[in-house]
Amino acid sequence: MLGKLYYGTLHTAGITTLARRLRQGALVLCYHNVVPRPDHLPPFGEPGLHLPMDRFTAQVHWLKDHYTVVSLRELVDRLENGRPFRGVAATTFDDGYAGEFTFA
Question: Which residues of the chain have pLDDT under 50?
Answer without folding.
Answer: none
